[in-house]
Amino acid sequence: MKKKIIITGSAGFIGSNLALELLKTQSNIHIIGIDNMSDYYDVSIKEYRLKKIEEAANNFSENKWTFIKGSIADKELIDQLFDEYKPSIVVNLAAQAGVRYSITNPDVYIESNMIGFYNILEACRHSYDDGESGVEHLVYASSSSVYGSNKKVPYSTEDRVDNPVSLYAATKKSNELMAHSYSKLYNIPSTGLRFFTVYGPAGRPDMAYFGFTNKLREGKTIEIFNYGNCKRDFTYIDDIVEGVKRVIECPPKKQVGDDGLPIPPYAVYNIGNSQPENLLDFVDILQQELIQAKVLPEDYDFDTHKKLVSMQPGDVPVTYADTTPLQRDFGFKPSTPLREGLRNFAEWYKEFYKI
Q1: Are 67 and 10 in contact (CB under 8 A)?
Q2: In CATH, what number is assigned to the domain containing residue 72?
Q3: Which Gene3D superfamilies did the record assign (predicted)?
Q4: What is the pTM of this model?
Q5: C-alpha dist (Å) from residue 233 to 83, 128, 143, 321
Q6: Where in the sequence is the domain holding 99, given as residue range(s)?
Q7: Catalytic residue among 168, 199, 209, 320
Q8: How many structural domains are present in the chain?
Q9: Which one, out of 13, 119, 132, 230, has a CA that is 20 to 30 A from the CA of 33?
Q10: pLDDT along the chain (355 residues), means of 10
């Protein structure tokens, strides 16, 4: 109630869905969204998401939505936003995503994921200046990629994650370390969320399910990495948003240690489905749902359009979330079945591309 919330990456997949959910379910809030509208993938999808947010804001007039086009790497802009709006909650979802893209385009990862996140932390720090109440909770996106090639499954937030296999993963682990130091030094409540393979309608076209669909529609061959011996913990977007929403409402408690200094009000959680699916099974369900939605013809010869190939640099064979702490602290566990989620995606795809 009566909160000002900054959501960075608000035209992105998770950011836009979170903004939509908050506008529809909360009262008297003002969401300030910022996004640089990068052309890393089709900008029309980002514009579609923003349009949905604007429609929701108009339908729920007690809530307010403000959008700013800009980069979190622009320190002056971030400081200006915090000074003007004085947010109670900050949800940092802006980042350059993608494991393989980080191998060919590393600069943008340092700019957005490192410098950008530093700017957010500094703005949160200075939100307490001059006796102001400041930011009550910083929630930020981490990634299952931080687990690298850990052999122990399911992945637990108690596991050591010191061996990233991509620059993207390294930047996300760095975000967790930076947030911890700011929580310790400045008593800023912060929670990192390690997302596991998020999918759903209006998702990112660089994700496998979306890219596969595009290629199958064009009659091209899809490549299935590690000869199909990959498992992914696919997590439906609505489950991700519900998890983020619950976390936002419960910042880690501020406490003082025996030394008289703050105990860092800091936490990290996994948000995943905890049911890793074999990639070949996933692709089989996807093609069934694409045929059911009439995105692909009924007689589509799927076998002639797939190719099993070796593992790509930066990839890992399995992702598998231990969500026990999430269930314990928030009473929530993602549960959307894969088929249901892919069906919703296929129906959205048909509508969006007017098939």
Answers
A1: yes
A2: 3.40.50.720
A3: NAD(P)-binding Rossmann-like Domain, UDP-galactose 4-epimerase, domain 1
A4: 0.95
A5: 40, 39, 12, 7
A6: 4-199+234-273+320-335
A7: 168
A8: 1
A9: 132
A10: 93 98 95 97 97 95 95 98 98 93 94 98 98 97 92 93 93 98 96 97 96 94 82 95 97 91 94 92 95 96 86 77 97 96 98 95
